[in-house]
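Re: folding output
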Amino acid sequence: MLSYPLRLYRGDSYRWRFVLWADPDRTVPIDLAGVVVGAEIRVTTGATPITPLGVVVTAPNIIDLSLSAAASVQVPAPAIWDLQLTYPSGDVQTIVSGPVSVRGDVTNSTTYAGAMRA
């Protein structure tokens, strides 16, 4: 599993792309057909989800994640996240996870004052 920290700036929008390969030379794409892809940010394991990340899968092996500006306002620090694949067979694989840190916004800090928790 890959460790990938998310370093957020409260109130900003984010996009991440993960391209999955079956071999070290990156010549054989992992086929994501029929795979359910999910990603969430939580305060701790088992806690109520803070927010799901937007997920778009592009065949055969690209996963794009997104976090809107409005959703990033709701993320307290510290938090954790992961990206999980559920295959048609029922097998589950977490491929990426990591800590989430959040810095407070300066320019629109009064706009987000009610939502700030960190």
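--- second protein (sequence, then structure) ---
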Amino acid sequence: MDLAAFKLSLAKSAPPKGLALALQALWWDAKGDWAKGHDLINDEPGETAAWAHAYLHRKEGDLGNASYWYGQAGKPVAKVSLEDEWAAIAASLLKQEGA
């Protein structure tokens, strides 16, 4: 799945089957359910989950918490728009997962 197909899937009521939790979290966030996205990855280990977690806290406005999660992900704190960051994370994770 590429980013365009991932975005098209937002018209459905549930994320595509087989997506990693970080991608599911981004999917729910894009659907307007930040809390559901956050709940999915809140206790999920790994750098990909941490990257999505960082984005979600940045979107929430909790920059201190976001900074911590960027560090856990091994990523610099994002300076681009939230929309651009969401797309960059989703595209990268889709490519990594081969989803």
